[in-house]
Amino acid sequence: MPIFTILGGVVMNWGRIRAIIRKDLREVGANRMALIPMIIVPVLMCVIVPGAITAIVLTAGPDSLSNAASLEQVIPYYPVPAAITNQVQRLLYVILNYTFVPFFMIVPLMLATIVSANAVVGEKERGTLETLLYTPITNRELATGKLLAAFLPAASISFGVFIIYFIVLNVLGYALAGVILVRSLIWIPVILLLAPAVSLLGLAVTLQVSFKAKSFTEAQQIAAVVVIPIVGLVLVQVTGVVIFNALYVILAALALGGLAYFLLTRVISRFNREKIISTL
After folding, report:
1. Per-residue confidence at 107, pLDDT binned at 50, 70, 90?
2. Residue pLDDT, tens place only, 28-64
3. Residues contacting residue 179 through CB under 8 Å, at least 6 positions apart
4. Per the structure, how many domains does the chain have?
5. Could you tell me the residue range of the domain that residue 171 belongs to?
């Protein structure tokens, strides 16, 4: 039975929106160009790379890292638990709990970009978008469905990858050194607030680009520009220019979430199927 909701003075049929979400998720699952990066990249960035770093540093020492000297200088700026007295373990604690925070911003951003680009430009390439635009679904329902179809898997996979990260890195740290390394409370606002905010911002940019882009690859390349500032965070954090803490994470999440909301309302309000049909 359809569920209707009034949003912004407009009646929304959630039965139609759920149908859009299910259709888009099925198409993502059938698109190897979209599905393979969604699986491989998060596992590589957030499990294999930190796992390799942890194993190497715990077995070969901090000298195995090229930038170990720079990282050791910023250790005093972070709240490392007093129980961790070994310098190598203190270094790993900072790396795994703070240096890798931007990676958990890149992952949801990348996932949201892939799914939302596939949801719009992918349909253009498959020739199915025009049929969808001629259905009785409203502009707002269609845009909302496309938005949620990208946000839900991005948020779910990001959370799942963090759970794997938490388990694998702590098992590895305990097995090699008898220490639980991933345990900073900063992960709570990072996963629950910052990652979703970044994902929504990526969605806003990608949807805006996708309605005009001619190909899936073009939409991805343009939207990927949003990743550059986040990559820069990794570099400036290693040098001590930026020191993450829970307050900064919450403030950043609120700022990015507010910007994402502003951009998304503009995208949805300006969504015009007639203009899109004219470009097909």
Report:
1. confident
2. 777 777 778 788 889 998 999 999 999 998 888 776 6
3. 84, 86, 89, 173
4. 1
5. 4-279
* pLDDT at residue 32 in the model: 76
**pLDDT tier, 5 (very low <50, low <70, confident <90, very high otherwise):** very low
3-state secondary structure the chain: CCCEEEECCEEEEHHHHHHHHHHHHHHHHHCHHHHHHHHHHHHHHHHHHHHHHHHHHHHHCHHHCCCHHHHHHHHHHCCCCCCCCCHHHHHHHHHHHHHCCCHHHHHHHHHHHHHHHHHHHHHHHHCCHHHHHCCCCCHHHHHHHHHHHHHHHHHHHHHHHHHHHHHHHHHHHHHHHCCCCCCCCCHHHHHHHHHHHHHHHHHHHHHHHHCCCCCHHHHHHHHHHHHHHHHHHHHHHHCCCCCCCHHHHHHHHHHHHHHHHHHHHHHHHCCCHHHHHHHC
Residue with tokens 């970044």: 198
User: Residues 204-242: pLDDT tens digits?
Assistant: 887 777 666 566 565 566 666 777 777 777 766 666 667
One-letter amino acid identity for 187? W
Backbone angles phi, psi at 229, to 5 degrees: -60, -35
Model pTM score: 0.82
